[in-house]
Amino acid sequence: MLFNIPNILTMFRIAIIPPLVGLFYMQEAWAIWLALALYTLAAITDFFDGYLARTMNQMSAFGRFLDPIADKLFIAATLVMLAGFDRTPGFWLIPSIVIMMREFLIAGLREFLGPHKIVLPVSKLAKWKTTAQMVAIGFLIIGPHGEVILPYTLEIGQWGLLIAAILTVITGWDYMKIGIKTIRELDEKA
């Protein structure tokens, strides 16, 4: 089941990173709008790959392996790109750092708990965090080029990313509480 629709969508999310970054480097209005379109398309696949895997009964080990990696590569590359082009200067870089730190921490926790057959289910708040993060990043990508449609586009993205970072801390702590409890139980059994 390597090449089912959900897995193809997940692989697409990884494949879109180089063209997205390349378009962003051009810094022409048309290229930034196209970068936003590619980003939006890739962000939509983040919802549909899991949804289709469940509804079409096409869940696979490959998908469970690659989907979280695709998410992290996609978000990390985009956040670094935004920082490199001053969409998140100074203080506004902190939410990006918080988001990436949480992603590494939870990935490590899941990797540690996996052999013990312990799964950290995705909470509703974590889904809201992902939505806030995706929308904020979209505003940051379009940045000043979006002013023709919506004033303060960059600022909306920066504040949105801050909200996403706050949700990131809350959901990260929720996951860590489960992880710490499990680690203590494992230590007691040892």
Provide structural commentary.
With 190 residues, this protein is an all-alpha fold. The protein has two domains: 1-70; 86-190. Helix content is 78%, strand content 0%. The protein has seven helices and no strands. The chain is globular, with a radius of gyration of 18 Å. The termini are far apart. The relative contact order is 0.12. The mean pLDDT is 91.
Kindly, what is the distance between the CA atoms of the first and last residues, rounded to a whole number of angstroms? 38 Å
Number of strands: 0
Q: What is the mean predicted local confidence, pLDDT?
A: 91
Q: Round the Cα radius of gyration to an integer and report it.
A: 18 Å
What share of the residues does DSSP label as strand, in percent?
under 5%
- Helix/strand-derived category reads mainly alpha
The percentage helix is over 70%
Major beta sheet, specifics? none
The domain tally reads: 2
SSE order, one letter for each helix or strand: HHHHHHH
Low-confidence runs: none
